[in-house]
Amino acid sequence: MIDGKKIRAPLHRWKSTMNQPTRFVLDEPRLPRVWYNLAADLPQPVPAMLHPGTRQPIQASDLAPLFPPAIIGQELSVEREIPIPDAVRDVYRLWRPSPLIRAHRLEQALDTPARIYYKNEGVSPSGSHKPNSAVPQAWYNKQAGIKRLTTETGAGQWGASLAFAGQLFGLDVTVFQVRISYDQKPYRRALMETYGARCLASPSTETGFGRSVLSRAPDHLGSLGIAISEAVEAAVATPDTRYALGSVLNHVLLHQTIVGQEALMQMEMAGDDPDVIVACTGGGSNFAGLVFPFLGLQLRGGRARRYVAAEPMACPSLTRGRYAYDFGDTAGITPLAKMHTLGSGFTPPGLHAGGLRYHGMAPLVSHLRELGLIEAMAYHQTECFGAGRLFARCEGIIPAPEANHAIACTIQEALRCKREGRAETILFNLSGHGHFDMSAYQDFNAQQLTDKTYDETELATALAGLPSVS
């Protein structure tokens, strides 16, 4: 059990590390000029996405109602490097390169020989890693003459990021936010609206699918699968509208690799090299962003490392899901992807890490799991909040509930190093801050936060309903 009451941050007996650097910050000219595409270095290709009607491999034309041509090209590309447009790099400079931090105080609190570093993606305007993909998606749509974007969001990090990016490029943005997060996180909704987006609780009365869900279950908590169905339905209904998503598909993971590319240079600045790399996983974007550039080096003959995906016990797609073809949405209108899935009809419990409440895992990340190149661990939310509170008391940053999963895993790895007497280097992605999640921390501090469990019968039913693919 990780708890700030049991492992106290020993600031009153702090040992100075003034002779050891803490922050590793790249100058703006070193901002990466390309995104890295892991598909170029895979030992086996990812199974193709399938058309939802014909069940044949998806073609570029099949994706045209959803995405602009440049995004479709990136989704299907196997080129190793994709140039980042200058207009996108110019916006990135508002917060990028993001800092790499040595967590000296957390190391001392854990009394571990491990060296712990974290990439702080919470410094972006919307407070998470999500603008790394929102900005290019908005720009490519603007270049294609699109006027409106629809999307889904869980905790609101993606919705806020797309709202921000849409405002920069003059696009109207409509966000379908999962009902439980819409209710739990009103300030993320306020952030989206401040940026100029329209935010609706999903399931909503705005779409045919939303109305059908509400007719069966008026108090439905919602899910990312349902919100995706609504956003896609709304997008295809209007010619000047397209859909944007914040995780799962290849082009989103591609955009996030700017994180790992910066981290490679910053670890070199630190004179260190990670043995273990950790990130939370819901759809897979921040995990891919940090891990893929390091894993790419390994696949091209570099040193081996451990890569650990940390997910919620209440929505454990990598640790409990089946590797199979499934829809990315609940209505079954998106392409079929081979991924670790709990079933597109599965509705996870209402845990506070709303960004991790997705039934499936990115096909690329799932493929790596099947190849044995990455590991996965699942954690209960009370353990994660204990880890986040300890981190806050040591490092001063209050993490988002999603990022707490990576912190819990990092602490577990650091304590393993202590038991084994191994001075390993651990790098994790602090994917966002938790300033809009304080009600959850209040509940945790008052010992009112409970662990959520999924219904085994519902999971079995959802898995039994997986589409048949020959």
UniProtKB/TrEMBL annotation:
<dbReference type="GO" id="GO:0005737">
    <property type="term" value="C:cytoplasm"/>
</dbReference>
<comment type="subunit">
    <text>Tetramer of two alpha and two beta chains.</text>
</comment>
<protein>
    <recommendedName>
        <fullName>tryptophan synthase</fullName>
        <ecNumber>4.2.1.20</ecNumber>
    </recommendedName>
</protein>
<dbReference type="InterPro" id="IPR023026">
    <property type="entry name" value="Trp_synth_beta/beta-like"/>
</dbReference>
<keyword id="KW-0822">Tryptophan biosynthesis</keyword>
<dbReference type="InterPro" id="IPR001926">
    <property type="entry name" value="TrpB-like_PALP"/>
</dbReference>
<dbReference type="InterPro" id="IPR006316">
    <property type="entry name" value="Trp_synth_b-like"/>
</dbReference>
<dbReference type="Pfam" id="PF00291">
    <property type="entry name" value="PALP"/>
</dbReference>
<keyword id="KW-0456">Lyase</keyword>
<comment type="function">
    <text>The beta subunit is responsible for the synthesis of L-tryptophan from indole and L-serine.</text>
</comment>
<dbReference type="InterPro" id="IPR036052">
    <property type="entry name" value="TrpB-like_PALP_sf"/>
</dbReference>
<keyword id="KW-0057">Aromatic amino acid biosynthesis</keyword>
<dbReference type="GO" id="GO:0030170">
    <property type="term" value="F:pyridoxal phosphate binding"/>
</dbReference>
<dbReference type="GO" id="GO:0052684">
    <property type="term" value="F:L-serine hydro-lyase (adding indole, L-tryptophan-forming) activity"/>
</dbReference>
<dbReference type="GO" id="GO:0004834">
    <property type="term" value="F:tryptophan synthase activity"/>
</dbReference>
<feature type="domain" description="Tryptophan synthase beta chain-like PALP">
    <location>
        <begin position="94"/>
        <end position="432"/>
    </location>
</feature>
<keyword id="KW-0663">Pyridoxal phosphate</keyword>
<dbReference type="InterPro" id="IPR006653">
    <property type="entry name" value="Trp_synth_b_CS"/>
</dbReference>
<keyword id="KW-0028">Amino-acid biosynthesis</keyword>
<comment type="similarity">
    <text>Belongs to the TrpB family.</text>
</comment>
<comment type="pathway">
    <text>Amino-acid biosynthesis; L-tryptophan biosynthesis; L-tryptophan from chorismate: step 5/5.</text>
</comment>
